[in-house]
Design a protein that fits this description.
By secondary structure, the chain is mainly alpha-helical.
Length: 1007
């Protein structure tokens, strides 16, 4: 393997990285205060009150005028304040960063006090390997003998020229039959007879040269390796220090996991009990509703089959339906000899389950009978009313909107463009710069793409039209098509619905109960938040979701395999031995500065570039896998991305790098793979050491500066025609935590694996967590809005990945200690593996279920609190009933009033531009947004507790200490959970009681 970074090159690389990070810090501090960038870097300070109220967030504190004044607020913000400004998932993400800081602060102290001195002074093993002269073999003539010792004052001789291994054998004619022979190439000295060298007893022996013989180790060590486990001699008693370190590391990590699991449960319960009544707090998602043909295997086959086959399938479905109805009416679910028993036309593709008594209550046939007599909404309502009498408030069926969605998307895009154009023309008219008729905005129209209407109106060839005339015409046509498709879509039921209950208790029971013995029907789960529903996937049945998921996983493994190709390319490119064979690179490697860049910076930088697009690819794949919410999609990215990092990035980098450096040995002696990998693990520590030096000092500060995003924002803001169009450029900065969390858990994994092997890495990982924490906290408070809110449900996956990292670190250490030929050391370390797994499963069993759904006790306390709220405010309509349309697909939210307002505004500005109407009819200017630089302490604008900024989040207890649920020793018995709920609510009413219910999105001019 190529030599890793030396101490000199590593120090130089750290200096370069630190310089870049310092430049990013200075640039950020000054750009943040510039006129064109302050809304980009502190966007949440300028958000409209409507957005803050809708997201139930507070406006963050103002930042002073100084360039570094942002540091104070970021450092002093408490977790409670972050929760009110950034949300629940942001708090959990900052907790995992704090977890890493605490963990590696401890590990840095322990490893540097105990393991690092032991490695550095233990046996001088690496020094002996690197300082020992090359082994001389009498017959390997191509090796230069070691030079004689130098006399005092004698100058060092020039380095001997590199002698390549010659080609030993020349071409020969065919040997006589039954024999084989060879001939040495010119210049190769003949070998003496075996007997002349070893004695007369070897008269019948013969030999030939081995072209694959290596006279010295292919692994070259550096002075940085003297701080690693490689410096400990085999069978050394000093390995006991590493065994103790492994146990200390294990116990500390497990203790922290237990503590943080309790904190996450407390936070999760708090989120669940403070949800507004009526939406996801009282609603379940019902899937695989029986009796609906949509999504069955037969229906899906019909949708993709040729016409003549589809007709036969449709006829079979009709026969199956008639047989099912007849069986349901007669009380018999199976009709012998009928098509209802055919696997092709059964609802689950498996045919009838048999003529036993359980089939008398077949869910499919019973539902088919009810659907024949009424609607799907009535079917679902009757089913859950039977199970939960007087508890069902509303049922919102889900419809097939495949044809409606593209129309709705086009309408939204054009309406936004038209509002921007109207605003631009209004502004220009006010400034006396109204465009001439020939200079008005023109758009290219292709009538052939708009159906019969487009072909008749605009022809088949592309033409240019005035945007102010074409867009209203197209919007009017889209309105007609949307209304037609909306009416048709409401009659296209899919086997899915949202059921809202009057109480949270019913929601908890329904979402945790087996509704029907037929597990392929009436699948009931807690509903995701309305804003996070991914409508394109919830309509599929379980069999199709399972099939899609399996196919996506298969594709994922293929991607993991093929990603080894660019990783192999990177490993080959950054292999110093390979680069040193080319004169230009050899000269660069001889210079300390360029050597540091090539060895210590280039590998990590290239790796980050290759990984940059992977999260977006995984997101695209998960959307096709049938995942039903934005949170589920992002969590799927988290799982796949972590697996990819472990298999392809960590293991792949190690295996591919070792393979490229030891290719001949892998081929000639496959059994040496274990020893090669055992040697490769300590060697890769140098790579990860430089990788996290790069990440901590360069890439994390650079991501905080986000210069690429700033350039894109600047370009968009220059192109944007109106203030509101420019506002969208900075308002839409959102964050999904899936890939970010994996970067953190992977750093924990690398740190745990190498903290004993190469203790120096703990400092770099600690600095990585510190810089990441500062950048992430600033972004969460002042810049990035969450793309979704899951209420801290992210922690269980984080916990699993940390436990996996811990077990992997233990396995690697056992593996390396075994290679060190010490029997007792790997056995003692191996005991930590079952200890870690037992603790993991104990934590999952104890704290896992409360993180998924509220307990029945907790739901009862929340319901009682809701009743008290109603009594305090007098008689009010049921909050749950007010959420009737919360789960209405947004494509059904067409607002004719807004449509007419838009067309009237377009016609008004058109008449003004044509001088047919006076400028008095211009749209009124909207007020400018508050400028942070104009705010002064004590002013109303400065206050974060003014109108629209009230705290929407109740706190635990009173006082600073009691404000954090994590400070309490939360026990998960039902009694103490009830205490947690009562402590959450206290004697005061919940602020959520006054929160207006979420309504369907409304298209407004400047939404």
């Amino acid at each position: 393997m190529a030599p890793g970074a030396t101490a000199g090159s590593f120090a130089t690389a750290c200096g370069i990285n630190a310089l870049v990070g310092f430049i990013c810090l200075i640039a950020f501090s000054f750009l943040r205060k510039s006129n064109f960038a302050r809304r980009f870097y502190t966007s949440k300070r300028y958000l409209p009150e409507t957005i803050l109220h809708e997201e139930r967030k507070k406006r963050p504190k103002p930042i002073g005028r100084g360039p570094f004044s942002w540091i104070g607020p970021v450092c002093t913000y408490t977790e409670e304040e972050v929760l009110q400004v950034a949300g629940w998932d942001a708090v959990v993400y900052l907790r995992i960063l704090r977890f890493g800081m605490v963990l590696f602060t401890f590990l840095t102290f322990w490893m540097w006090v105990t393991v690092l001195p032991t490695n550095a002074a233990g046996g001088k093993y690496v020094k002996e390997l690197t300082d020992s002269p090359p082994k001389v073999i009498p017959f390997a003539y191509w090796l230069s003998p070691p030079p004689p010792p130098l006399r005092a004052g004698q100058p060092e001789p020039p380095p001997a020229p590199e002698v390549k291994t010659p080609n030993f054998y020349d071409t020969v004619p065919p040997a006589p039959e039954g024999l084989m022979w060879w001939r040495y190439a010119p210049g190769v000295p003949p070998l003496p007879s075996v007997a002349s060298v070893l004695g007369p007893g070897y008269g019948n022996f013969s030999w030939r040269r081995d072209p694959n013989y290596a006279t010295e180790s292919s692994f070259e060590f550096t002075n940085l390796d003297r701080a690693s486990l490689s410096n400990i001699q085999p069978k050394s008693s000093l390995l006991g220090v590493h065994v103790v370190a492994a146990w200390v590391m294990t116990l500390f990590v497990l203790a922290m996991l237990w503590r943080y699991a309790k904190k996450s449960v407390a936070l999760r319960i708090r989120y669940l009990v403070t949800l507004p009544k009526g939406a996801d707090s009282n609603t379940v998602l019902v899937q695989d509703i029986p009796g609906v043909n949509f999504g069955t295997q037969a229906a899906r086959a019909k949708s993709v089959a040729p016409a003549f086959v589809a007709n036969k399938i449709e006829a079979g479905i009709q026969k199956s339906t008639n047989a099912a109805l007849k069986a349901a009416k007669s009380g018999v679910s199976r009709v012998p000899g009928s098509e209802a028993t055919s696997p092709l036309f059964s609802h689950d593709g498996k045919g009838s389950a048999g003529a036993d008594t359980a089939d008398t209550f077949n869910a499919w046939n019973k539902a088919k009978l009810k659907l024949d007599q009424g609607s799907m909404e009535a079917l679902v309502k009757d089913e859950y009313n039977e199970l939960f009498p007087d508890e069902v408030v509303s049922v919102q069926p889900v419809h097939d909107t495949t044809k409606l969605e593209p129309l709705d998307k086009e309408y939204d895009t054009l309406s936004q463009k038209l509002w921007d154009l109207i605003g631009d023309y209004n502004s220009k008219v006010r400034k006396g710069k109204a465009p001439e008729p020939k200079k008005r905005k023109q758009v290219r129209v292709i009538g052939a793409t708009m159906g019969e209407w487009g072909r008749e109106k605009y022809g088949m060839k592309p033409v240019k039209k005035d945007a102010l005339e074409y867009w209203p015409e197209r919007l009017e046509r889209l309105k007609e098509e949307i209304l037609v498709e909306t009416a048709e879509a409401r009659n296209k039921n899919v086997p899915c619905a949202f059921v809202t209950f009057r109480s949270r208790r019913s929601q908890v029971v329904a979402s945790t109960t087996m509704i029907n013995h037929d597990l392929s029907a009436w699948i009931t789960d807690p509903a995701p938040a309305p804003a996070t529903v991914y409508w394109g996937n919830i309509r599929w049945r379980a069999w199709e979701r399972s099939l899609r998921s399996s196919l996506i996983w298969a594709l994922f493994w293929v991607i993991c395999f093929f990603y080894l190709i660019p990783i192999g390319f990177v490993q080959g490119f950054v292999n110093v031995d390979l680069l040193g064979k080319y004169p230009p690179f050899k000269q660069l490697l001889d210079i300390q500065f360029t050597n540091a860049i090539i060895v210590s910076i280039l590998p990590g930088l290239v790796l980050k570039i290759f990984l940059a697009l992977l999260p977006m690819l995984l997101t695209f794949m998960n959307k096709r896998a049938g995942m039903q919410s934005l949170a589920e999609i992002d969590y799927g990215v988290m799982t796949k991305y972590f697996i990819f990092q472990v298999l392809t990035v960590w293991l792949g980098t190690m295996v591919v790098g070792s393979f490229l450096s030891q290719l001949n040995q892998w081929i000639d002696d496959p059994g040496s793979a274990v020893d090669l990998l055992g040697t490769a693990v300590p060697k890769t520590a140098s790579f990860w050491l430089t990788f996290y030096a790069l990440s901590a000092l360069w890439t994390v500060p650079f991501s905080g500066l986000n210069i690429i995003g700033l350039i894109i924002y600047w370009i968009k803001s220059k192109i944007a025609a109106t203030e509101k169009a420019r506002a969208r450029c900075w308002q839409d900065q959102k964050v999904s935590y899936g890939a970010n969390v994996v970067d953190v858990t992977f750093a924990i994994m690398i740190g745990l694996i190498y903290c004993i092997i190469q203790p120096v890495i703990t400092v770099m990982v600690l600095i990585f967590f510190m810089t990441s924490f500062v950048v992430a906290k600033y972004n969460a408070i002042y810049k990035l809005r969450p793309a979704y809110e899951s209420g801290g449900l992210i922690w269980p996956k984080i916990h699993t990945q940390i436990v996996f990292s811990l077990v992997l670190a233990q396995l690697v250490l056992v593996f390396i200690l075994a290679i060190k030929k010490v029997i007792w050391a790997p056995i003692i370390v191996a005991i930590t593996i079952p200890l870690s797994l037992i603790t993991h499963f104990t934590i999952k069993k104890r704290f896992g279920p409360p993180q998924l759904i509220l307990s029945y006790r907790g739901a009862a306390d929340a319901d009682n609190h809701d009743e008290m709220e109603k009594e305090m405010h007098g008689s009010r309509s049921d909050d749950a009933a007010m959420q009737r349309d919360a789960y209405l697909n947004p494509v059904f939210s067409f607002n004719d009033k807004d449509h007419q307002e838009l067309l009237e505004a377009a016609n008004n500005i058109d008449l003004i531009l044509k001088k047919e109407r006076s400028e008095e009819h211009l749209m009124p200017e909207l007020p400018d947004e508050v400028d942070e630089d104009e705010m002064h302490p004590g002013s109303t604008a400065h206050s974060t507790h003014g109108s629209g900024n009230k705290s929407f989040l109740p706190t635990f207890g009173k006082g600073k200490k009691g404000s954090n649920a994590a400070d309490k020793d939360v026990q998960m018995s039902t009694t103490e959970e009830g205490e947690t709920l009562r402590e959450t609510y206290g004697d005061n009413k919940s602020p959520y009681a006054e929160t207006k219910p979420a309504s369907a999105p409304v298209r407004t001019p400047y939404s």
